[in-house]
Amino acid sequence: xxxxxxxxxxxxxxxxxxxxxxxxxxxxxxxxxxxxxxxxxxxxxxxxxxxxxxxxxxxxxxxxxxxxxxxxxxxxxxxxxxxxxxxxxxxxxxxxxxxxxxxxxxxxxxxxxxxxxxxxxxxxxxxxxxxxxxxxxxxxxxxxxxxxxxxxxxxxxxxxxxxxxxxxxxxxxxxxxxxxxxxxxxxxxxxxxxxxxxxxxxxxxxxxxxxxxxxxxxxxxxxxxxxxxxxxxxxxxxxxxxxxxxxxxxxxxxxxxxxxxxxxxxxxxxxxxxxxxxxxxxxxxxxxxxxxxxxxxxxxx
Length: 301
Known about the structure:
Elements: H1 2-32, H2 36-58, H3 90-125, H4 127-141, H5 145-156, H6 160-186, H7 190-197, H8 202-210, H9 215-238, H10 250-256, H11 266-293, H12 295-300
Helix pairs in contact: 2-3, 2-11, 3-4, 3-6, 3-9, 3-11, 4-6, 5-6, 6-9, 7-8, 9-10, 9-11, 10-11
C-alpha cells in the first residue's frame, strides 16, 4: 500500500523541473500583458508581421500591376484602401511594403544594438578607451538624426542596404551610451572582482558576467530603435534620399503620392496609418518591457 504513495511524490518531483520554466514564462507574459494597451500593441504587431509574411503566399497578385483605367479610385470592396496614380492596389502595396519597412527596422535595431553594445562595453570597462570612444559618440549625437542620416545616405548612395547601414550608424550612439552607463556600475560589483581574483580572463568576464546583465536595457532599446528606424526611413524617403522609388516601402508610397494628395488623400492616409500604428505599437510594447524589467520605473510613473 505504501508503494503508490511513495511513487506519486517522486513523479511530481520529476515533473517539476520541466514545469517550472513554463510556469515562469507564463507568469512573465501575464505580467507583461496585464496592461491592455501593451496587449493591444502586441496584437497589432503580430497581425502586421503575419500579413507581411503570409499574405503574399496566399495571392498571386503583384503590387506593381498597373491599371490606368482604375487610377485614383476611392476605397471600395475592390480596392480596400483605394488605388494610386497608376491604378495599383494601395492595400496590396501596404502589405508588401510592410516586408521592407519591417526589415529596415529589424536590421537597423540589430546592427545598432550589436555595435552599440560592443562600444559601450569597451568604453565602460576599459578606462583608457572611455574618453576617446565617448567623444566620438558625443560628436555623432551632436547632429540631429535625420540630418546625419541624409548625409550618410548621400555619401553611401540611395539603396535599401545603404539606408539600413546609415540608420545603424545613426542609432548606434544611443545604445552605446546606455550600455556604457550600465557597464560602469557592473564593473565595480563584487562578482566581477571575484572573477578577476580567480584569474578569469577579461573577454570571459565581459561575455559571462557583464553582457548577461546588460540584456534588460538593451532589449528595451531594441523596441525603441525598431520604431525610430521605420519613422526615419519614411522621413528619408519623403525628402527623396531614402530607398529607391521602385521598392514599395511605406515611406516611398507616401512620397510617390504627394502630388495627388488633394485628389486622392487615401493614397497618403493608408500608408501613414500603417507607419503610425506600427511605430506606436513598438513604443508601447517597449514601455511594457521596460516596466516589466524595472518595476521601480513603473512605481514612479
